[in-house]
Amino acid sequence: MNNSPSVLKPLMRYVKPHKGLLLLSLLLAAVSVAATLYAPILVGDAVDCIITKGNVDFAGVRNVLIKLGITVAVTALCQWLMSLCTNKVTFYAVRDLRNDAFSKLQRLPLSYIDSTRQGDMISRLVSDIENVSDGLLMGFAQLFTGIVTILGTLGFMLSINVKITLVVVLITPLSMFVARFIARNTYKLFTRQTEARGELTALVGEMVGSAKAVRAFSYEQEAEKRFEEDNQKLRHAWVRAVFFSSLTNPCTRFINGLVYSFVGIVGAFTAIGGGFTVGQLSCFLTYANQYTKPFNEISGVITELQSALAAAKRVLDVIGEPAEKPDAPHALTLTAVDGSLEAKNVYFSYNPDLPLIEDFNMNVKPGQHIAIVGPTGCGKTTFINLLMRFYDVNSGEIILSGHPVTGCTRSSMRSQYGMVLQDTWLKTGTIKENISYGKPDATDQEIEAAARAAHCHSFIKRLPQGYDTIISDDGGSLSQGQKQLLCIARVMLSLPPMLILDEATSSIDTRTEILVQRAFKKMMKGRTSFIIAHRLSTIQDADLIIVMRSGHIIEQGTHEALIAAGGFYSELYNSQFT
């Protein structure tokens, strides 16, 4: 099984904490199998009690039936308890695996999140983990019982006839060689299947999330074409994996059928020769059938495990990804900042072959309002990502209130900023919960005051349940402007000492924008603020305007000074009013 051991070992770490239940399940399997194997002996005894014509031992048959009834009851109880234990072990293990995967997702660097399709990640955390659950459940339930059954029937058969037992033992393993050969070649097929399913899930997520853009650009036919191509890839991978894996059971059953027939023929001649009784022959045939049956089940388990291990590898790959560089051992927890910020010789690029920000220097005084302008792709939003430590600089340093940001805890540093971005983010919940996201203990009065300051109180009151109206993560029926106002209200509620406004009013109508800009001026008073805006008319009052181009600061100064200089900023400004 290619790569299976490397996946199985870390997967078993999630089972190890529940080894008590696993051992109990194994014990119950042994008792269940022992009772099951004792039943053929009782049946054989009953056959011997009635084999002689006109001389039926009814008392003996009655005693055998009582024992048989007790045996069946014990078997049923043990099998039920064993299923309960294996289910608990499986679901606990899968729960821990899912928790670790989701927890790791929270600690992965944004570079990994940005480079991975969301649908594929969802497929790993949902569909693939479900496949792992199915595989483990079948493995524990049938593997234990199968192994114990093989050992138990072997012992009982040896006690009846050693020679025929040796024949069975020598021939039956052929089915395992066949199963192993097929399983070795199906692991790659199941891996392709899980990858194809992840691609299809990613495409569906992309098309659903961009449904309006798909309709607006009449992309429906192209979307259907892409879906059909990915669907065909999944179908092809799935059919091949299922076809080859399904060969296991019939092949092993054919070999086991030959074994059973051979035992029946040889056993019949042995019974005729007086080697054992007819009841013992009946008992031996039952054991031979029970001995070969687990080989079929185990081969099926191996096939299911191939699918589970292929899925587990994708989940474990996420868990094994290097986490975001942790905070320094003695990192400073920022409790208050004065708002000063300095960037010294900062270099950064997402791709080492494509330089972006080079030798970037900036000195911001407490309470200053800094506007960052420049053409698309010049590094404005990238610099904001560096300020928030969503990405770390390649070289140089950023100093916040006299402390290098790499020497501070990320959570305490980020708590000093309030962000309003062009891309709005809401969660599934009430309007109240969305506004208080950064300050969960806020009172209703504080939430309403923030909403009034952001000029969204009026439309909130018109909603069916007002502030208790539940919205989805995409905002539901709210307009883009209304969603942006909610994000502005969220920042106005927490009022951190520093603000980042990245096209914060891009989706708001002109009249509301004027009102919000007034609220921003009030909110920014005494707070260091970084403002990114393409509409240069909105940043004329900034204390310092930094003009970026190709990752460098090419101009800086006040609006009046930059206009008077007649440089690149002047060209940008005049182009908006030409």
Architecture overview:
By secondary structure, this protein is of the alpha/beta class. It is built from 20 helices and twelve strands. It folds into three domains: 95-319, ABC transporter transmembrane region fold (Up-down Bundle), CATH 1.20.1560; 339-416 and 498-578, P-loop containing nucleotide triphosphate hydrolases (Rossmann fold, 3-Layer(aba) Sandwich); 421-495, P-loop containing nucleotide triphosphate hydrolases (Rossmann fold, 3-Layer(aba) Sandwich), CATH 3.40.50. 63% of the residues lie in helices and 10% in strands. The strands form three sheets. Strands 6-9-10-3-11-12 form a six-stranded mixed β-sheet, sandwiched between helices. Strands 2-1-4-5 form a four-stranded antiparallel β-sheet, with helices on one face. Helix 5 packs antiparallel against helix 7 (173-209). The mean pLDDT is 80.
